[in-house]
Amino acid sequence: MSALYCLFKAVKSRNPNILIKMYTVYVRPLVEFASPVFNPTSKLLIKQLESVQKRATRRIFLRSPLLRGSTSQFSYSDRCKLFGITSLAARRLYFDLKLFHQKLSGDIDCNFELLLADSKTRGRSRKVIIPKCRRSTRRSSFAIRASSAFTKLPRRTQAETKHLSLITEV
Questions:
Q1: Chain-centre distance of CA 54, in angstroms?
Q2: pLDDT tens, 17-27?
Q3: Angle 3-10/43-63 helices, nearest 10 degrees?
Q4: pLDDT tens digits for 34-45?
Q5: Quick one: residue 15, left, alpha or beta (phi over 0 = left, psi -120 to 50 = alpha)?
Q6: What's the pTM?
């Protein structure tokens, strides 16, 4: 049985705040586990991962007596805004950027190749270099995926040394 099914079977509450809290505590960590290591690139896998949260928000929405009347008007993104949660794809990007920023600032010591070049121009003293990739498996590796996402951030955000300001920008 899935964790989502067990959660809705065990909890009889109709309060959407309680149900969202239960989902974020018990189910979402299972889906997000080790997201920098396993970050799907195919649309099918992304859709399958996102379907867990879609199903959860739909069931919470239908279970709530205050919200039940208008199911056809609320899409998945509307339900996420209503419940105050972000999509799983956005959270995977956030976790990638957080780990990349921690590695870049020297807070953690992990072994993945990070190409940095000393720079004498304005901006960061060390620039992130993204190598060219011929294969999609290499392109989807953490170092390439996170460094390309990091370089797309505004320069002010890249220069931040605290993770809290990085969190608010992403």
A1: 15
A2: 999 999 999 99
A3: 0
A4: 888 888 888 999
A5: beta
A6: 0.80
